[in-house]
Amino acid sequence: MRRNVTGRWFGSLLMMAALACGGLRVSQADEAVSTPSAPAAAPATMAETVSDGLSKILMGGAPGGVADLKAMQQRVQKLSEKLMLATVGVQVGQAQGSGVIVSKDGYVLTAAHVSGKPGRDVTFLMSDGKILKGKTLGLNRTLDAGLMKITEGSDFPSAEMGLSDILKDGQWCLATGHPGGYQSDRKPVLRLGRVLLSDNSTITTDCTLVGGDSGGPLFDFDGKVIGINSRISGPISSNMHVPVNTFKETWDRMVKGDAWGHLPGNDPYMGVKGDPAAKEAKIGLVYPDSPAAKAGIAVGDMIASVNDVAVADYAAFKAIINDHQPGDELKLKIKRGDQEVEIKLKLAKRW
């Protein structure tokens, strides 16, 4: 269930976040941003460092007065510097976004649409102004989760990954990033908000985000990463984040550089349907003017392999296609009667 914050409290808390981090600045139209002025150690757990009353507020309750606002402000002050240090700007080709360092040896969480594909060169822009090099690793395009690695230096400031499956609607959270792209004279920007909705695939918050924030982290009030900024909507105060559990559950695969799935609205299209009566990957229908039709695939063809990967049945064939992107070129080995035919085609975009 979506829970709303009254305008009175939301305005007060936006100002609180700005004051907690050393002042109010504007980098986009009507967007309040903040920069930290002094380091502060992040507490270990909420239960160890806050009163029962404040803990209830942070988990979704409304502040009861000025004292509660001050307590929340102090909490942000304790967290802000560590969160800023772990937040990085990233540049891949001409595209810019954000990310968060989650290990001392330089693994960085970001959005899949920021990293693009494995093996690309990355420029990391640290909060202290240093510029470091790195590479993109694996990505889950369907959920927009991407992993990167800083390849020079060591002992980086980092944030711990938390749990995204225990979030409560209305829970307070903090988002950081580089709205509008990295600026050398501005540290990462901190925004305060609340969790509106969450499930296994998406977290929705009212943290104010704009272009350039994509790939940046969403934190709980323990200073742990609970999500990654993903889809920034038209109203800048209703945005979607990748749950951090997505990264944890597929960590080994991402570290290896695997890439799978496809971004929403970017489905690959080949233009065939399988024969439901066949056990093998047999083509039952070819759509006119589709990539398959233009390449010469015919009804009755049996798909033996895709890019030299053997295909057992149509479900396996469909899964392989869905792991590719529009524009990818495929080499198909096809059994056609007594012949084996090799066909090359380029996948199109479904819509």
Mean pLDDT: 83
- Helical coverage, percent range: 10-25%
- Helix and strand composition category: alpha+beta
Domain unit count = 2
CATH class of the largest domain: Mainly Beta
* Number of helical stretches of at least 4 residues: 9
Counted beta strands: 23
Strand order across the largest sheet? 3-4-5-8-7-6
Strand content: 25-35%
Most strands sheet = 6 strands, antiparallel, barrel
CATH superfamily membership of the largest domain: Trypsin-like serine proteases
Query: What is the CATH T-level topology of the largest domain?
Result: Thrombin, subunit H
Poorly predicted runs: 1-49
Radius of gyration: 23 Å
Q: What is the distance, rounded to the nearest whole angstrom, between the alpha carbons of the first and last residues?
A: 32 Å
Mass-distribution shape: elongated
CATH architecture of the largest domain: Beta Barrel
Briefly characterize the structure:
With 351 residues, the protein is α+β, with helices and mostly antiparallel strands. The protein is 22% helix and 34% strand.
Describe this structure in words.
- The protein is α+β, with helices and mostly antiparallel strands.
- The chain folds into two domains: 7-87 and 157-260, Thrombin, subunit H; 268-349, PDZ domain (Pdz3 Domain, Roll), CATH 2.30.42.
- 22% of the residues lie in helices and 34% in strands.
- The chain contains nine helices and 23 strands.
- It is elongated, with a radius of gyration of 23 Å.
